[in-house]
Amino acid sequence: MLAVKSNRSKIIILAGIVIIASLFYQFSGIDIAYFSYAMSIRTPKLIVMLITAFCIGSASVIFQSIIQNTIVTPCLLGMNSLYILVHTATVFILGSTSFLVTNKTLSFSIDLVVMGFASMLIYGYLFKKTKGNVLYILLAGTVMSTFFSSVTSTLQRIMDPNEYDTLQNALLASFHKVNSSIIGFSIVLIALILLLLRKELALLNVLTLGKNHAINLGVNYDRSVRRLLLGVTLLIAIATAMVGPISFLGLIIANLSRQLFKTYRHSYLIFGSTLIGMVVLIIGQGLIERVFSFSVNISVFINVGGGIYFLYLLLRNRGNV
Amino acid sequence: MQVTNLTKIYGKKSVVDDVSFEIPKGKVTSMIGPNGAGKSTVLNMISRLIARDGGNVDFKGKDIAQWKSRELSKKLAILTQTNNISMKLTVKELVTFGRFPYSGSRVTQEDVKIIDEAIEYMELTEMENRFLDELSGGQRQRAYIAMVIAQDTEYILLDEPTNNLDIYHATNMMKIVRRLCDELGKTIVLVLHELNYAAFYSDYICAFSNGEIAKFGTVEEVMTKENLSEIYNVDFEVLEINGKPLSVYY
């Protein structure tokens, strides 16, 4: 009982931090004369950060629980490299001035369709084919990532250098390239995914006991895991299509959440990891905008911070990996 | 439970070949046999953990594939030998999972009572709030059994419950199995490597060899010098101690 209480208060404290950080981000250093203009810039960015944090945070926790390993990241599903490949290929074939590149809504939709389709095809099919072996999914993801990256680097090598320059910019995660129609669409899509997966999400606690226990307790393991995996890839696809390759963030926030809440209850883990993600993104983006005046990108923070944290996790778990 | 013509094929080799038997209700049945004889595979197939390549498993008049998984989990529980849970779980939380087939994630008053009883039955009350990874192997095994008890099924299948336990804990485990049958009226099937545990604590023995049933009968019928020597390909002596046939091999 004590643990539940303190976990609940941790959630409340985290939510408080998120609200304070959001308010600070939204209203600090504003010139009153340009208030509504500033709002029109900041509001969508803030919403995108919140959505991204939710997508990445929940997807990572679910993914780790399915794989039963807390140092995997959904990066392994290859969505990042697929995103990079799609964008590189579009610029390579149609040029950086093509409407497919400049029209944000259109490029978002293309990203989403390609990634969604690829994930259904690769992971949905493969999972059935391998009779529900999640390790094959990991392996396939790794191989796919490498494959996509090799194609990408080949294309980039033979690309026009000016085009390459523009492309490089588009390939870093950022919150600037999103408009309100994309936001609306993403929210609807996420709501839809959650609705369709509500039964499976309720089974998460049991699924983490492992395949045998889950089946023993009457769970349709293969079906549940397959649907959850699809949900995970779609959530990651949404986040990636919105802001770029950012799913490495998941490793950090999911583990911080596990460390903080020390429970198997996924309602806490997912909610916690989402809130932590929000704090990290808002503070990071705030720093970039107000302190570094846009000279660095959020990916830099995430990769440096995430890399160090990953090493820490490896060293800490040395005994039982 | 009636098993007929059960078959499992890996590649071209059939590891379980046309196995038929009936599990005696309200009794303890031990499956014995050399490594790779197919005992665990049979156990996993009749509990729907792995798919079968042929045959029928009739459970209460219906094939287990026809049962709704949730309903089946109220009648039949299986505990396998590898139980590494990576989550931070306390004993009580683990046992609570045993009620999942009945109440999902919402635990009722009745569930709480059954959970507490299961924990008490396995003498785990004083460590019910400790994490599983802080327990010894024997204590952890008892916690898993408590979960199975909370699941409150008629049939309990155990895959090598004495594996990795020392003599003291293994013997206690077998006494618990006996009590579950005698006091709570459960039907228990277990895979065992220790012949003498099988002989002393079970009612029936099902001996496997090369994916087939070599012998199936009461303990006295199966535990003979000739049978055992044939199944294991080792010289045996069978002695009678406390009215039970116990084996010595060398």
Task: Describe what this molecule looks like in 3D.
The complex is a heterodimer of chains A (321) and B (250). Chain A is built from 14 helices and no strands. Chain A is mostly helical and 321 residues long. Chain B has 250 residues and is an alpha/beta fold. Chain B folds into two domains: 154 residues, Rossmann fold (3-Layer(aba) Sandwich); 72 residues, no CATH class. A six-stranded mixed β-sheet of chain B has the order 6-7-8-3-9-10, sandwiched between helices. Chain B has a four-stranded antiparallel β-sheet with strand order 2-1-4-5, with helices on one face. A two-stranded antiparallel sheet of chain B has the order 11-12. In chain B, helix 3 crosses helix 5, helix 3 packs parallel to helix 6 and helix 5 runs antiparallel to helix 6. Chains A and B meet through helix 9 and helix 10 of A and helix 2 and strand 6 of B.
Output the keywords:
heterodimer; A: 321 residues; mainly alpha; 14 helices; globular; B: 250 residues; alpha/beta; Rossmann fold; 2 domains; four-stranded antiparallel beta sheet; 12 strands
Most residues in contact: chain pair? A-B, 22 and 31 residues
Q: For the residues shown, what is the average pLDDT of chain A?
A: 86
The description of the largest β-sheet of chain A is: none
Flag low-confidence runs of chain A. none
Overall spatial form of chain B: globular
Helix content of chain B: 25-40%
What fraction of residues of chain A sit in β-strands?
Answer: under 5%
* Top CATH class of the largest domain in chain B: Alpha Beta
> Which stretches of chain B are low in confidence, meaning pLDDT under 50 for 5 or more residues running?
none
Distance between the termini of chain A: 31 Å
Count every helix of chain B, treating DSSP H or I runs of 4 or more residues as helices.
10
Largest sheet of chain B: 6 strands, mixed
Assembly classification: heterodimer
